[in-house]
Write a structure and sequence with these properties.
Shape: globular
Distance between the termini: 50 Å
Structural class: alpha+beta
Radius of gyration: 26 Å
Largest sheet: 10 strands, antiparallel
CATH architecture of the domain at 3-284: Distorted Sandwich
CATH class of the domain at 3-284: Mainly Beta
Number of helices: 14
Helix content: 10-25%
Length: about 700
């Protein structure tokens, strides 16, 4: 193995400290581990001849115990090489190579005799490391006051960031130099009902950066279990980032018992932006699948009673009575408001639409009692997850959906009363299985109950994992909204299909919306940790369609909404608009019908965070490919080489592009569709409108296709 150890003698202190150099399997990435004269553990990471992270300190502060930051000596060094391939239950590729060199540094603190292990895994594209605490008599139970992991940057990098809010990830991204970061978004925080930002200049991970000399860097974490989420505090003068864990209301960051370990801290670096997106480092650092049997897990395309509430066409609540605690028997006496969305009749319409167009499921929000009393009042028990409104017939809809071959997707909004949900999970999941529900969308809107916790604190992190484990026990697939940002745990719990954990498409319905660049940033930030339920597919872009004077709109073209099914990866994809809107554009909806949700291969054809992205994906167990291309507020012309297609084979390419006059603001619903015969030697020339995109489906051509269509 290519490992070099250098021992240095410090004459003034008599302390022996050392430096260790390790190279990645292909030799391009380099890790340097050192103990300073004070016995402080440090690391340095480089890619080729470019330094990515300068010498940075490692350590933790403990509550009422001596900090684990200095005074260490090396007990032992263990090293190994791993090169294996594993197959995900679902994903962007059929198989994943896990190839790394590992370095485990066993350290003893001389003053306390306490021992920690710092474990590094060095990949060709990046580095993962974590702290481990073996069983020891003098460190059985301890409280983390703060983790002091540093990421010392080499300069004032261009950065794509959101502020380090303990309770939400639902911010628009800001692009600025590190030196210009100001993480206090007071107005935005107030608008969405939260104001729990941490110290100024703190940002969330995943943090995406680009250096002046063109190196791309992504910092995040992997396998976040039994620990608080990590934010980063920026020293704007030195460009040093320091970890800042989400606390509970007592200020404690973690309660641990040996043996235990922290999540992995991850650094991915590349000379091409596309290589950042292609990395599987975060997935590889997670534990293998813990489920014995996974055949019941099915990537899903669905519609739902959801968007119509966001645009004001209907409501979640059955009655207009607000903020009144009602007994279960009182619901029968309520007067309906006439706008309730989740009715038996309306659900049947969605089921009919899904069956007609080959979609797998129908999400129904607002089916259960409690929505009159759910938001912002800190009530312990708003929802029981069992009792439907009077106009929602669970048994009748179960039979109807089964006849149509469609699954209904359950919705559990907890209103952030997590202790209530934990008490009721078993009966709620039994209710689901009894009535044929195989998937659940959870929600955590509001201030967390128990009141000492934040959305991203240790207790809540453990709750999300408990839900994943409990739903797996019941063979239920999970889609979590308002959770902590994901860290690759879908490898370990593949029933955890997707999360929200970012500013999704819904913000376009009732706020200033998402800027056209938003979807070009998300793959480099939020989606680095796992799939996002972004809810694409809005065709009625201008929302004054529903109410005169309504100024909100989706800040994309219709063609870009199609492209998002490819560029924003998820095995759980919603056709988010109303069925009647899709019926107005059946030729465009054909792409949503056709596009896959599970893949054998993925090619990142071109990428630049904040500007553009083009991705091609090959459908699982089929010869079909799909391409999505998106841009920011600027129009763009691009040429896509189809050299990834099989040689000596003809394909039909159905190309959904922006119309000649399309523009995300002035004419967002202008699109055109053209079909050609192509081969792996063909190039596609695409013109993307401002805020626009293109979606392409490719399938093997028939003789009839070859005879009737133009060949490119």
């Amino acid at each position: 193995m290519n490992i070099k150890i250098v021992l240095l003698l410090v004459l003034f202190t008599g302390t022996i400290f050392f430096a260790q150099v390790m190279h990645s399997p292909n030799g391009k990435a380099t890790l340097v581990f050192k103990l300073t004269e004070k016995g402080e553990p440090t690391y340095q990471f480089s890619l080729g001849n470019k330094e990515v992270i300068k010498q940075s300190k490692l350590g933790l502060e403990l509550k009422e115990l001596e900090a684990l930051k200095e005074g260490f000596t090396v007990e032992r060094i263990d090293s190994s090489l791993t090169d294996e391939t594993w197959n995900p239950v679902w994903g962007e590729v059929k198989s994943i190579r896990n190839n790394y060199k590992e370095l485990a540094v066993i350290l003893t603190q001389l003053s306390t005799k306490r021992q920690i292990i710092i474990r590094f895994r060095l990949y060709d594209e990046g580095l993962g490391f974590r702290y481990e605490f073996p069983i020891q008599d003098n460190l059985k139970y301890f409280t983390v006051a703060e983790e002091k992991t540093e990421f010392f940057l080499t300069g004032d990098h261009k950065t794509f960031w959101i502020p380090g809010d303990y309770d939400t990830n639902e911010y628009a991204y800001t692009t600025s130099k590190i030196s210009a970061v100001d993480a206090y978004f007071g107005k935005t925080a107030d608008e969405i009902g939260f104001k729990t930002l941490i110290a100024p200049n703190a940002v969330q991970t995943p943090l995406m950066m680009k250096t002046d000399d063109g190196l791309y860097i992504n910092i995040h974490e992997a396998a976040l279990v039994d620990y608080s989420a990590m934010n980063l505090v920026i020293d704007q003068k030195s460009f040093k980032l320091t970890s800042h864990l989400v606390p509970d209301k007592l200020g404690n960051k973690g309660y641990l018992q040996t043996p235990c370990k922290t999540p992995w801290r991850t650094i991915i670096a590349a000379e091409k932006a596309a290589d950042i997106l292609a990395s599987k480092l975060i997935l590889n650092l997670n534990e293998p699948c813990k489920l014995e049997e996974t055949s019941w897990i099915k990537p899903t395309k669905y519609v739902g009673i959801w968007w119509e509430m966001h645009v004001g066409k209907s409501t979640w609540n059955y009655s207009d009575i607000n903020n009144v605690k009602l007994n279960l028997t009182d619901w029968k006496n309520l007067n309906p408001n006439g706008k309730h969305g989740a009715t038996t009749e309306r659900t049947k319409q969605y089921i009919d639409f899904a069956a007609k167009h080959g979609l797998d499921g129908v999400l129904v929000e607002g089916w259960n009692i409690g929505w009159e009393d759910w938001w912002g009042y800190g009530k312990e028990e708003v929802f029981d997850f069992l009792t439907p409104y009077p106009d929602f017939n669970v048994e009748e809809l179960q039979k109807y959906a089964e006849q149509k071959g469609v699954k209904i997707i359950m919705h559990h909004e907890t209103s952030a009363s997590v202790s209530n949900y934990e008490r009721r999970m078993d009966e709620a999941y039994n209710f689901m299985k009894k009535h044929g529900y195989d998937a659940v969308k959870t929600g955590y809107v509001g201030r967390i109950i128990p009141r000492s916790e934040y959305h991203d604190s240790q207790w809540m992190v453990n709750h999300y994992v408990r839900v994943a484990e409990k739903t797996a026990k019941y063979h239920i697939m999970l889609d979590a909204h308002e959770p902590v940002r994901p860290t690759g745990l879908h490898r370990t719990y593949p029933n955890w299909l997707a999360c929200e954990a970012a500013r999704g498409n819904e913000f376009n319905a009732w706020s200033e919306g998402n800027k056209p660049e938003h979807e070009t940033i998300l793959p480099f930030t939020r989606l680095m940790g796992g799939p996002m339920d972004y809810t694409p597919g809005i065709f009625q872009i201008k929302l004054n369609y529903y109410k005169d004077g309504k100024k909100e709109q989706v800040h994309t073209t219709l063609a870009k909404q199609l492209a998002l099914y490819v560029t924003l990866y998820s095995p759980l994809q919603m056709a988010a608009d109303l069925p009647e809107n899709y019926e107005r554009f059946p030729d465009a909806f054909k792409f949503i019908e056709d596009v896959a949700v599970d893949w054998d291969d993925t090619k990142i054809l071109e990428a630049e965070p904040g500007d553009y992205l083009t991705i091609a994906r090959k459908e699982k167990n089929k010869d079909n490919w799909f391409i999505g291309a998106i841009t920011d507020e600027n129009s763009r012309a691009t040429t896509i080489a189809l050299d990834f297609l099989d040689a000596d084979k003809n394909y039909i390419a159905i190309i959904y592009t922006d119309g000649d006059d399309a523009h995300y603001d002035s004419d967002p619903m202008s699109y055109q569709i053209n079909s050609y015969v192509v081969t792996n030697k063909s190039d596609l020339k695409l013109k993307l409108a401002c805020g626009g995109g293109a979606a392409i489906s490719l399938r093997p051509a028939t003789i009839e296709d070859i005879k009737n269509l133009k060949k490119l």
